């Protein structure tokens, strides 16, 4: 896990998310990229001059946020992008190879009923980069127990699991698998990827109306330090991925959530 990216939004608590990312990075000897996106269009006077001024202003703001965290000898670099957030994430990923994005569930606290706000929701929905969602105020602690919740154990590519494998190796984590059988499941869903089985220490099969309800019950029973889910068309967020915001009534977690993308399933 060499490169960790932290998109900085408008939240006054952005430094808390960055601190979490830095604490995590210090365990993996990773470098952290702090990113801010702005949008200056061609109609805004001298585009080059205005873009340069806005970019400089963004860098100064990022420096202020960086100065609020304990760097722990982690290399923190600044990245700014003029344009759409997702385009910027894809561009920096193409250039550097981002192993993990660390975000807060919401960019601000205006709508408390939301788990994922518009910005964080777009990042989860529109990128294939592994993403760690860190609840507001969460302090980093090693992941001793990881709950992996899913409704299908079929994974076509082992490398999808790379972040989970690295976490297990670094923290000697116990990986608990939870396969939730929901109405309409097919037998193929019960086939679990060999690589996933190899890193796990425990497997539970449960039946619930939704995958989320099964996960919620086991979070309360097992008290994991980290929840891992797969972003796929037929998964935890089956219908949630159709929109950029997710209400707490639909999904919420008080622990960090690692989202691994399954591009095709």
Question: How would you characterize this protein structure?
Answer:
- With 265 residues, the chain is α/β, with parallel strands linked by helices.
- The chain folds into two domains: 3-133, 3-Layer(aba) Sandwich (Rossmann fold); 145-261, 3-Layer(aba) Sandwich (Rossmann fold).
- It is built from seven helices and twelve strands.
- It has a ten-stranded mixed β-sheet, sandwiched between helices.
- It is elongated.
Low-confidence stretches: none
> How large is the radius of gyration?
19 Å
Annotated CATH topology of the largest domain: Rossmann fold
- Spatial order of the strands forming the largest sheet: 3-2-1-4-6-12-10-7-8-9
**SSE string, helices as H and strands as E:** EHEHEHEEHEEHEHEHEEE
Looking at the structure, what is the overall shape?
A: elongated
Q: What structural class is derived from the secondary structure elements?
A: alpha/beta
Q: What percent strand?
A: 15-25%
Arithmetic mean pLDDT: 82
The major pleated sheet works out as: 10 strands, mixed
In DSSP terms (H or I, runs of 4 or more residues), the helix count works out at: 7
Gap from first CA to last CA: 25 Å
CATH homologous superfamily classification of the largest domain: HUPs
Oligomeric state of the chains in view: single chain
Q: Assign the CATH class of the largest domain.
A: Alpha Beta
- Helical content stands at 25-40%
Count the domains: 2
CATH architectural arrangement of the largest domain: 3-Layer(aba) Sandwich
* Number of separate strands: 12
What descriptors fit this protein?
single chain; 265 residues; alpha/beta; Rossmann fold; ten-stranded mixed β-sheet; 24% strand
């Amino acid at each position: 896990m060499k490169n960790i990216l932290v998109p900085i939004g408008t939240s006054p608590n952005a430094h808390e998310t960055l601190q979490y990312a830095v604490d995590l990075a210090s365990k993996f000897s990773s470098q952290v990229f702090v990113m801010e996106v702005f949008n200056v269009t061609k109609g805004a006077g001298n585009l080059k001059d205005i873009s340069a001024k806005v970019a400089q202003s963004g860098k100064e703001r990022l420096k202020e946020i960086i100065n609020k965290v304990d760097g722990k000898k982690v290399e923190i670099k600044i990245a700014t992008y003029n344009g759409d957030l997702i385009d910027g994430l894809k561009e920096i990923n193409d250039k550097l190879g981002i192993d993990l994005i660390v975000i807060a569930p919401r960019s601000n606290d205006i709508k408390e009923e939301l788990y994922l706000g518009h910005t964080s929701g777009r990042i989860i929905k529109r990128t294939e980069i592994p993403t760690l969602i860190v609840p507001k105020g969460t302090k980093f602690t090693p992941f001793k127990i990881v709950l992996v919740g899913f409704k299908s154990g079929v994974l076509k590519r082992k490398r999808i699991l790379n972040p989970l494998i690295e976490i297990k190796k670094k923290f000697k984590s116990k990986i608990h698998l939870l396969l939730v059988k929901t109405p309409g499941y097919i037998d193929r869903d019960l086939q679990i990827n060999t690589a996933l089985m190899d890193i796990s220490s425990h497997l539970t099969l449960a039946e619930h109306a939704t995958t989320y309800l099964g996960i919620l019950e086991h979070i309360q029973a097992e008290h994991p330090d980290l929840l891992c889910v797969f972003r796929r068309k037929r998964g935890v967020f089956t219908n949630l991925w159709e929109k950029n915001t997710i209400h707490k009534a639909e999904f919420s977690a008080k622990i960090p959530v690692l989202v691994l993308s399954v591009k095709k399933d």
